[in-house]
Amino acid sequence: MTNADKPTIAVLGAGKIGEALLSGLLAGGRRPDELMFTERHGERASELTNRYGIRAVDVATAAKDARVLVVAVKPQDIEPLLDELAPAVGGDSLVVSLCAGLPTSLYERRLPDGVPVVRVMPNTPMVVGEAMSAISPGRFATADHLAVVEELLGVVGLVVRVPESQQDAVTALSGSGPAYFFFLVEAMIDAGILLGLPRAVSEKLIIQSAVGAATMLARTGEHPVTLREAVTSPAGTTIMAIRELENHGVRAALLAAIEAAHDRSQELGRQHED
After folding, report:
1. 3.40.50.2300, 1.10.10.10, 3.40.50.720, 3.90.190.20: which CATH number matches 3-167?
2. Is 210 known as a binding-site position?
3. Are strands 68-71 and 55-56 parallel, antiparallel or unpaired?
4. Predicted pLDDT at 2
5. Annotated binding residue 170
6. E-strand spans in the chain?
7. Would you say 64 is a known binding-site residue?
8. pTM of this prediction?
9. If one looks up domain 177-268 in CATH, what number appears?
10. According to the model, what pLDDT value does residue 271 have?
């Protein structure tokens, strides 16, 4: 796709994810004049315009001037946004929803008939260009629309296509996944401090171990069980630690936690049903 063919993009809601996407698009070669954003707080809007050179607009202007409208507000803020968007959006627009739990049917019900919608579940590593985003087409979205969204999000991480029926599972697994990871890393750092290590040393040991382990998983293609067994010597330190994790039900707790996140994602969607 040539630069002349690239659609103008408006990010509706410039929180952390919205800003991360804008920053990634600029890093990926977009010009500031190809982008715009909406933001309710004037001070925040000025801050982002000064930082990136991207103009802040209202929702009606975004709907009129941009071909791709990326909705990046919190789920509880979606209704007033759709109230503003519905009378302004046209059939040649593409709406991309980054809102956890919200189905494409909500947008299709509230927006003019035929407006294509693509549902996305990204995650916060978008801030460092390492997001995992899953995308699903709504009723009016075509393969071309999905390709536009894949290119859009490809500058800030990896993208997979899934049926929309799997999006609540994606939300629970990768959408919330970084929080589980940070929680475990926090506990491991505290364990290092408990064993007498300075906090700075414990942090460095655990963070680099996590980066290295994730890189091994990504690059080797080995199953995590295989990689774990390679570290687990008979009667060694690792197997003793694994036994304690199993005794304390860590695996079961993770399964229950992810299932609870899945249920909450479904609940968020049901809150906006007719």
Report:
1. 3.40.50.720
2. no
3. unpaired
4. 42
5. no
6. 9-12, 35-38, 55-56, 68-71, 94-97, 117-121, 131-137, 157-161
7. no
8. 0.90
9. 1.10.3730.10
10. 80
